[in-house]
Amino acid sequence: MKTTKKYWKGLAQLHDDPIVEKLAQNEFVEELPVDEFLGDKENLSSTSSSRRDFLKFLGFSTAAATLAACETPIVKSIPYLVKPDEIIPGVANYYASTIYDGRDYASVLVKTREGRPIKIENNGTCSNSRVQASVLSLYDSARLKHPLKSNEESNWRTVDYEIKEKLSKIKNGKIALLTSTILSPTIKQLIEDFGDKYSNVEHIMMDSTPYDGILDANLESFGSRLAPSYCFDKSDVIVSFGADFLANWMANEYATDYVNGRNPKNGKMSKHYQLETNLSLSGANADKRIQIKPSEQGYLISSLLDGLRGEKFDSRLSSIVKALSSSKGKSIVISNSNDKNIQLIVNAINNELNNYTNTILVDKPTNLKQGNTSQVDNLLSDMKEGKVSALITYNVNPSYSYNKAKEFNVALKNVALKISTSSYNDETASLMDYVCPDSHNLESWGDASPKHGTYSFMQPTISPLFDTRQFQETLLSWTDRSDYLSFLKNFWIAKGIDWNTTLHDGYFNLEDKKLRLKSFIDRSKSIKNSSSTELELELYETIALGDGYQANNPWLQELPDPLTRACWDNYLTISAHTAKEFGLENWNVSNGALNGSLVDIEANGVSLKNVPVLISPGQAKSTVGMAIGYGRTKAGKAGDGIGFNAYPFTGKKSISIKKVEGEYEFASIQLHHTMMGRDIVKETTLSDYIKDPSSGNHRETYATYKGKLTADKVTLYEAHDLEIGHFWNLSIDLTSCIGCGECVISCQAENNIPVVGKEEMRKSRDMHWMRIDRYFSSDMTEELSAKEKISMIDMFSEMEEPSENPEVVFQPIMCMHCNHAPCETVCPVAATTHSNEGLNQMTYNRCVGTRYCANNCPYKVRRFNWFQYSDNDKFDFNMNDDYGKMVLNPDVVVRSRGVIEKCSMCIQKIQELKLNAKKSGQPIKDKDAQTVCASSCSTNAIVFGDSNNKDSEVWRLRNDERAYDLLDHLNVRPSVFYQTKIRNKA
Question: What is the pLDDT of residue 827?
Fold first, then answer.
């Protein structure tokens, strides 16, 4: 069945803006800066230099460049005097470890080269883009290099002596230890020991995004303050009220479980309903999405409970009530509300549906969120009253992320002893008397318990780069002890753990004490409809920066948001309908870049000036959204002054906005890589797929002298011999891809992809080898309009309406490694050639930068190095920093100015794989063949392998009825193919 659905990338494309066609015809619309390159751009055009003078100059320049190129650069190397046994130059080592920064948790494998960690891989758990990028944060030159005393460099001996002396003199006042959620059993033990040594110690945990509503509601419902585990893979119906569980809500692991429960091969998929304000990653993947205002959430959840009990309920919930009623014990209802009363109703709903012990496990809770905002507020009151004699902070930055940060900073003056253990001299640390810098996860020993009964170990993969010390060692020092490694080892050996085995594996299960839980107590109270006509604000976290802890990580700053496709900014998201009411707009300038209106926003005395507005399809009417994690002032050179700090608006719903003069320049690639309206996304419904597995995968036929044939049967190319040896293919399942961007960061880390900054991104000069295109859908097309004789006005009216709440699909795009490659035929110097294993290869030192290949590529996946991005002060990111360069992969060359680059299908990993197979004398195992995008994909949407191996997963997928080639009518025979998108619309 041929689809009538039309896809568009942005509102400009939807409205047929001429700039879209201009971009489609010319990828690089910026004029080349010839005048600037040659010299005086103001006077050059009026000079009267003869052709002979110009050729003299050109000849001299060429000769000088040739002579300079003959000089071999001097590279100084220091050989090993005694080579470490575990290091073989040129061979990577892998260590099982843990990443946890108080926010994101993952059990990982760390790839090291010659003692340098350079890459993060998953180790039996989900990760995300921030976990993948954390390896770059290790080499952040903004990290503190020494302990500080009164913001001056000091040493550990002095700092420890003075702190212990001052702590020991505290008799009456309180010693407050303010930390993030603590997952480590040994840290909890050390804090307990610390409290035994010093009097009146209080440990308080805070989360940058509070989850008190869930925790306090469960305290009343079950007698224990906990957050349960959710089994999305066992659920037939998922109803989420604002909880973006595929991105940042609660834990990372939910994405894998969610996709496992939506495999169409099983003949069924979970039905996902999302009721939300901002268009989130979870909402974009939902089968049905309902827009609501934040003030409506409590009423609708209460109404849902009424419906399940047979009482009158809101008509918007009809299909949800029906689906849940028929899926008792096989459903999940969640909410992102931080209101305890709303969460009590959610608990009552899940109890009514018999979900506890089936899909929701309160006896195996997650430990990732334990913060207590009321205790933090009480601490603030005690500080104001002078009751706190010492404050020690760990893994938190309340001067930035606390919604009462201004009050907190004033109250700090009443605390006699202030100590931070931050790795950075951040907003909070800069106000402290002492800063005892913590080491990075990759420099530290440790343990973690992300879930009841589940544990993982952290081990150092490099010696500390700076004079830092992990928090555990600091606590030991202040209790007159040392050697945390021995403490950690003895702690777990005493519990019967095999140290060497578990350290090698990285994670283990251990039977914990059974939680004392009460039988469910229903304390829910009905909530009336309190929806107002006021403009309402909903805060959210992006998949890149999250809460802003890694704001100084340029990889994350430059990762485009999967929905708005903007980076290096936060902004106010608003619907087209509401934007029109306030006279706000977005528009494209001559080079395709996106600009927007500015507003001042205010809520209960909190205000921000000149905030940019980005019109976002899917935003609920009369609402706006804004991301936290931006607006840092002491993050570092990449993070300072980027965006606006939205934390002060936490808990504030009603908001007023006022348009002001001026315009804002976004770094958005939303209109970049235009596909010219071609059929690039193929999709179908689950019911149609069950009837016909090839449903939605329609292929056009073309008239030939042999009759009508599909495009793959018609070609002028001579076929490559790909039946002998390996034929590397890559499959992308559009049903499994949730658009999280983890693969983009993983690719950037593996392949030394440079950061180019906001201005270059704005000019569509992004360098990512992999991008994730986002398409909004609209059921109205010009063809349907003509067929049903719909007027032009009505057609555009109906085409406009879905833009308020469109369906969304994500499509990862990289070099397709075409076997009839258009790029290979136009390169004048044979810099791009075809291998006998089906790969399109780039020879960088042969490329002269004509960009013919980029012009001839139908997928627009080739990247041109407009500048020398390394060792260039104009691009002052990790490649212009001696520490930042330590993350570079020595197996991948750093490209120079004037060279085209693109996805190599991780050729360095393929070569390593073949060499290892040759040494062992064994054939390549299918599970060992991995590109980094495939190995990092938490949903297994990307599968790589040898298509000539009929036992491989990729061979099975290539021959699946859902498999199709992108732009298959061109018959370029890509080695990358897709599986049709399947939605559950039953």
Answer: 94
Closest among 429, 420, 370, 427 to 391, alpha carbons compared: 420
- CB half-sphere exposure, 826, CA atoms < 13 A: 12
CB 448 within 8 A of CB 458: yes
- Residues in a beta bridge with 116: 113
Written as six digits, the tokens of 477 are 């020092």
Identify residue 868 by its one-letter amino acid code.
Q
Question: What are the structure tokens assigned to 644, written together?
Answer: 């606006």
Side chain identity, residue 500: N
Q: What is the DSSP string of 22-44?
A: HHHH-S--SPP-HHHHHS-TTTG
pLDDT given for residue 701 in this prediction: 86
Does 22 have pLDDT greater than 90? no
Q: What is the mean pLDDT of residues 169-197?
A: 94
Enumerate residues 6+ apart whose C-beta is below 8 A from 284: 562, 563, 618, 738, 739, 774, 808, 810
Residue 551 makes CB contacts below 8 A (sequence gap 6+) with 545, 557, 629, 630, 632, 635, 636, 638, 639, 642
Instruction: State both tokens at 697.
Output: 């995968």
| Residue 408 parent element (H or E) | helix 405-411
- The DSSP string of 273-294 is EEEESS--HHHHH-SEEEE--G
Number of Cβ within 10 Å of residue 409's Cβ equals: 15
Q: Can you give the pLDDT at residue 742?
A: 94
Amino acid of residue 251: A
Q: Of 747, 719, 734, 730, which Cα lies nearest the Cα of 946?
A: 730
Contact status, residue 812 vs residue 743, Cβ threshold 8 Å: yes
Say whether pLDDT at 652 is over 90. no
pLDDT of 889 over the 70 cut: yes
Segment holding 595, helix H or strand E? strand 594-603
Backbone φ, ψ for residue 328 (5° rounding): -65, 135
Judge if pTM exceeds 0.85: yes
What are 423-448's pLDDT values in tens digits?
Answer: 999 999 999 999 999 999 999 999 99
Q: How far apart are CA 372 and CA 374, in angstroms?
A: 6
Q: Which residue has the tokens 């990862």?
A: 812
Q: In the Cβ-directed half-sphere of 252, how many Cα atoms lie within 13 Å? A: 26
H, E, C per residue of 76-100: CCCCCCCCCCCCCCCCCEEEEEEEE
CA contacts within 13 A on the Cβ side of 618: 26
